[in-house]
Specification:
The protein has 218 residues and is α+β, with helices and mostly antiparallel strands. It contains 8 helices and 9 strands. The protein has helices at 5-19, 51-58, 63-81, 133-136, 142-147, 149-158, 187-196, 208-216; strands spanning 29-35, 38-43, 48-50, 87-88, 97-100, 106-108, 115-116, 166-167, 176-177. Helix 3 packs antiparallel against helix 8 (208-216) and helix 6 (149-158) packs antiparallel against helix 7 (187-196). The protein is globular. The termini are far apart.
Amino acid sequence: MAQIEKARELFTREADTLKKLDHPGIPQFFDSFIDRDKKYLAMELIHGQDLEKRVFHQGPCTLEQAVDWTIQTCDILSYLHSQDPPILHRDIKPGNLLLRRLDNRIFLIDFGAVKEIGTPQGTRIGAQDYSPLEQNLGKPVIQSDLYAIGPTLIFLLTSDSPHKYYRRPHKNQPYRFVLEDIPTITPQLRSVIEKVTAPKPRDRFQSAAELKHALANC
């Protein structure tokens, strides 16, 4: 890692970002240091399991669980996006959402891809199936973080890779998540997922607070 310039840059960016964050859904940062040419972050220990492992071990979640956990995630994103300048996580996915065993609180982890709006663009970071086109092109915006809530919900409610449902509904139509045949996704929640994963950022929910409100109504 110490020999790779990009890894070094991401480590420094993560440490600098974590130092200034203070939110109950983000593990507390204590220190960063180098020992024998290896870099370390010292952070609060959260006893729990990420949502990817939980679904793999226990199967799909209930609608109530999935909506509650993604609403908590929206609260964290709202905090990040309200910073000056706004902070993009760029790697929202079930594996980065840690569920604390004590109280079922969601913690957002892995800030290695974090980026402030206004910094030079161009780096392609994000999990396949969870990042939108503009992020894959190295031009993420706030709505790129929100996009990831859609495929996260699909995974939580089906235990399938979201890619399974990503296709053209009809010839000559753009790719989208086709969810009509998933019984665990209600029509109201389906419309929320379809909006938050719209191909163009302007057609999605424009803030985490707006998305949270829509999810609460589901």
